[in-house]
Structures are given as structure tokens and as C-alpha cells.
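Progress against Task 2.4 (sequence-to-structure conversion) is shown through the following example record, which the project officer requested during the mid-term review.
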Amino acid sequence: MSAALTIDCSNTIVYCSRWRECVAFYRHGIGLEVVFENDWFVEFALNSTSRLSVADARRASIESADGRGITLTFKVRNITVAHRVLRERGLSPGKVEKHAWCAEVFYLRDPDGNRIEFWSG
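C-alpha cells generated for the chain above:
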């Protein structure tokens, strides 16, 4: 029997054509903490074991998906508070809806068009 694979941290990297706008969106709009930054790549902490990074597609070997086929999904403790905070930060989250999986959910898009799902339940 082989040894178990242990993953200590996960990171999703989004390659953006509107990189500066996306960095500002995740940093100021959503309010994520920066844990690493250089002139074409910013890594944000989602929690103690999850990261979200935004890379400048013009400087990377991977192109932007321009919002096609990507959904970032974030579970939050209180959907109403999350929705209000994002509106207060000048963003335009969609309305809170009941999801088929017995949850409440709303959606938001970053400047590159990537869909972000916030859910609670």
C-alpha cells in the first residue's frame, strides 16, 4: 500500500488579461489579504490553507480564459452579510437566491468576467 498524499495548502491561479483591475477587485473589492506579490503575480489568502492567485496573462505562458468555463466558489458564514459588504465596497453582486442544493447563493464577476459564487447553507 502506498503512502497517503497530504496536501497542506491549495492555490487556484486565474490568468487575467485585465490584471491590474483584477488585482484591485480581489484586494479592495473582496478584501483578500495579499501573501505574495511581484510585478505580474499576486497571491491572496482565502483562509489558512487556501489561496487565490491572479497572474498577468501577458507575462505568463498560460492565456486568460476571459471568464469562460471558470467559477470560483466561496462558502461564507453569512450570505446576507457577505452580500451587504460587497455592495458597500462598490461591487454589484447579484441577488441572493435559493440554490437547488439547499443553500443560499449569489454571483459576482471579476473584471475579466470570471464568475464568483458566494454560498451559505
